[in-house]
Amino acid sequence: MEKESLKVVIVGHVDHGKSTILGRLLADTGSLPEGKLAQVQESCRRNARPFEYAFLLDALKNEQSQGITIDTARCFFKTAKRRYIMMDAPGHIEFLKNMVTGAATADAALLVIDAHEGIQENSKRHGYLLAMLGVPQVAVVINKFDLSGYDRFVYEQIVKEYSAFLQRLGVKASCYIPASGRHGENIVELSRNTPWYSGPTVLSQLETFTKRGSSEKKPFRMPVQDIYKFTAQGDERRIVAGTIAGGSIAVGDSVVFLPSGKESVVKTFEGFPASPESRVSAPCPLGVTLSTQIYVRPGEIMCRKDEASFPQVADRLHVNLFWLGRAPMVKRKRYKLKIGQARIPVELVELRSVIDATELGTPQNKEQLDRHDIAECVLETTRPIAFDLLKDCEASGRFVLVDEFQIAGGGVILGAVSEGRSALQERIRKREVSWEGGLVSAPERVLRNRHRGKFVLLTGVDLPRIRELARQFERKLFTLHLNAYYLAPASLSQPEQLTNDELFEREEQLAHLGSTARILTDAGLIVVTPLSGLDEHEIAKLRLLNTPYELLTVSLDEELLSGGAADLLLSPKWDIEEMLAAMMAILNRQNVIPDYCI
Amino acid sequence: MTHLESLESQSIYILREAYREFKELVMLWSIGKDSTVLLWLARKAFFGHVPLPLLHIDTHYKVPEMISYRNKLALEWGLDLLVGENHAAICAGQTFPDGAVDRITCCRHLKSEALKHTLSGSWPHRRLDHGSGIFKEDTQRISYTGVIVGVRADEEGSRSKERYFSPRDRQNDWNVDDQPPELWNYYNTDFAPGTHLRIHPLLDWTELDIWEYIEKESIPIIPLYFANAENKRYRSLGCYPCTKTVDSNARSVREIINELKSGKFAKVAERAGRAQDQEDGGGLETLRREGYM
Hints:
The complex is a heterodimer of chains A (598) and B (293). Chain A has 598 residues and is an alpha/beta fold. Helices cover 26% and strands 27% of the residues of chain A. Chain A has 13 helices and 25 strands. In chain A, the strands form five sheets. A six-stranded mixed β-sheet of chain A has the order 2-3-1-4-5-6, with helices on both faces. In chain A, strands 7-8-13-11-10-14 form a six-stranded antiparallel β-barrel. A six-stranded antiparallel β-barrel of chain A has the order 15-18-17-16-19-20. The termini of chain A are far apart. The chains are: A alpha/beta (598), B alpha/beta (293).
């Protein structure tokens, strides 16, 4: 039978002896593969260096020459109880990103403090990050105790000082272990040099740690990772796939997807080689088919309709975050936010406080986040996202920020921010205030043109179809001596920021399109634009960008945009002439074009 | 959730993440047990399909049974199989032991170089034609931005430093000292133009996990891993001049598991039979920095 495995990260200030403790742990539990020990001993012999336990972990050549652990080296060992995945996280400040990589998924942490050197900058910074990363259990190992003569007073001083520090973070260490990695004291065997210490050894503490709690009892959440339809392989199933982040679900359950709010019922569970049974729970990978055809995007969260608890939906977020990027995090710059399975452009709009991790709580009046800063701030996404508080669901409560193609920060959402204008609203307000008109007024233009300006958006699933319809509509208006203009998104210039990200391109495209439509409708034109896959949030955004002019939305696919969400829903049974007539009629009803055109 | 189920779940998650984020995605298939488990996991992740191409680098020194097993499985499972090689080096005989090069140089020629140039689309490769069952020169050359590889952290030192999504720069170099962080289940899926990512869904698996999973799922594995009539078997598969068999009488997956758990291999490194690892203290590390898997 397989045993459970526990992931443990070892953190602490540089040179406080993490690798030595780990090497000792492996050697003293008899967990080293024969090849490994021989290899390291041989390398020591060749380089005329005495063998050290730390070398076992520092597996790479260049690392040994620098004498510091650069990355999170993983190693494995077993006890009679279970398996351990031990991650040796680097203590040097430059490698903080590697430390968080190791710690983020750990079940428990060993935090190493050098008895001789005492609590250092990174002892505190790592403690802070463990709290923020949500590592549930921490044991403090006070190492190199041989150098302090196994002095009980030194032990008690460090315990007192460090436990006071941890208390402010809301963390309580499981224990404080006086140890010597080099001499193997209190690592596996209790030391004779610390008769006053009755606590566990490092190994017995590891055995006491528990796995991260199960999320099975929490509300059901499945962030949608992808939607598969392998039509080319002759498979007609449309499978909504993801990993269950919390709770459980059964075939026949009514589900709702957020932020879109679309609803359906789970028709089947899919799997290979066999489908799972009728009820599955976190943290299983899952694929479902739905009983109705609805248009769901990757990134939405599937929830159960019968549960009282739903994710919140907002575009302004109050967050705690830490920044690891080489370049600072600044305002008015687009970053990519990853939360759950959603990826979305985001910007920093407000810095409420920046915390110096070593002193905790020293406020600084900063306008940007520098590397290794920890801050409380407000982020704004380009469209509303669904999220949870950590207590309800970790996967949709934590996020990372991507800058210049790399993860540069991470954090937790504390809640939605409802007060204040959004950054976009603010930009539009400023634009309208400073808009400079000519001598010709809007009513004069209407009189001359004998129609009003309007931004007509055609949307659907099938781009070639809506494109053709938009072109025919422009032609029809033109034939009737109306000033119409076919504006394709492809005609707008490419985004300036170098990106190979469709998400950013779409947002840039919408911003560009909305601003261009604002000018063309002001000039009195009927602008006709085909745009596939449009949803309600995007319409709201285009409407805002086109302020003060109005938008007319025409939908060709009910599952994409229903009659309630679009101004006009075209029936799939109609031919093109009937569709054009319906569009002319609604323009007339809205007093855009005169009666004689109908 | 058992240990194997949680490993499986994480690997499936990573495969789906890769499939979602990379248009030019390929998976390396060495025919060995690890990448065959990976292939099985892909079928699970994508509900019975493998919707991405598989690449095998043929050194022409592979144990012959590997090639026939590869072709049989590819046809049976409908795999989109690509085969690349360093044609020039093979023709010129710049190989070990026939040519005047050492093991590391041979690896570099036949594996690293062949892989690099096949992935970038600069060298030709062949593609399995399912209609005729034969390999044909592929006119479609793609520069892949996402490469899925079945390496495991417990194999040897340098692999324990890998990320799940690990960036490689324009020269194919791996900057071990400066890798971006991976937080929770968020990975680095963005890449600058001209660079690519290596994706490692099996990073947390051990050799024993692999065998226990093969047993649990009844994955068809190449019989070279099982002891033959002379009581010899391969523990790790590669080119025949550099891969030795081990003495063993394990004739089934269950017997291999027992051998790993409590038998003679409980404490012998898996790649102990791979001669190129021992060549210069860090032979494999040197190769890995250059693109070796």
